[in-house]
C-alpha cells in the first residue's frame, strides 16, 4: 500500500511525496557505479577551479593572518587561565 501526499510549495507549485511499497521498490535498485576519472583529468579540474578563486590582496592577507593569530593567542590565554584556576582549586581541595 502506498500513499501520495501533496504539498504546496512556493505559491502553488506542487510537490508529491510517495510512501510505502512504491517507495520501497525504488530503494532496492542498485545505483550505477561511478566512473573513475584519470589523474590527468583531476589535475585539469583542480587547475580550472583554482583559476576561479578570488585570491586576497596583500593587505587582506596580513589582516586575516593578524586576526587569526590574535584569536589563537586569546584562546590560549583563556584555556591556560581556566586550567590554572582549576589546578589551584583541585590542589587546594585535595591537599
Automatic annotation (TrEMBL):
Predominant location: membrane
Subcellular location: Cell membrane; Membrane
GO CC list: plasma membrane
Compositional bias annotation for Basic and acidic residues: 18-30
Domain of life: Bacteria
Key word Protein transport present: yes
GO MF annotation list: protein transmembrane transporter activity
Membrane-crossing segments per the record: 61-86
Disordered: region residues: 1-36
Membrane topology: Single-pass membrane protein
Keywords: Cell membrane, Membrane, Protein transport, Translocation, Transmembrane, Transmembrane helix, Transport
Similarity annotation: Belongs to the SecE/SEC61-gamma family.
HAMAP family named among the record's database cross-references: SecE
Protein purpose: Essential subunit of the Sec protein translocation channel SecYEG. Clamps together the 2 halves of SecY. May contact the channel plug during translocation.
Subunit and partners: Component of the Sec protein translocase complex. Heterotrimer consisting of SecY, SecE and SecG subunits. The heterotrimers can form oligomers, although 1 heterotrimer is thought to be able to translocate proteins. Interacts with the ribosome. Interacts with SecDF, and other proteins may be involved. Interacts with SecA.
Name this protein carries in UniProt: Protein translocase subunit SecE
Amino acid at each position: 500500500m502506498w500513499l501520495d501526499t501533496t504539498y504546496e510549495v512556493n505559491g502553488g507549485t506542487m510537490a508529491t511525496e510517495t510512501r510505502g511499497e512504491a517507495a520501497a521498490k525504488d530503494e532496492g535498485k542498485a545505483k550505477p557505479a561511478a566512473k573513475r576519472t584519470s589523474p590527468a583529468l583531476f589535475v585539469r579540474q583542480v587547475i580550472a577551479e583554482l583559476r576561479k578563486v578570488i585570491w586576497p590582496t596583500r593587505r587582506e592577507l596580513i589582516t586575516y593572518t593578524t586576526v587569526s593569530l590574535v584569536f589563537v593567542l586569546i584562546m590560549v590565554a583563556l584555556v591556560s587561565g581556566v586550567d590554572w584556576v582549576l589546578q589551584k582549586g583541585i590542589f587546594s581541595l585535595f591537599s
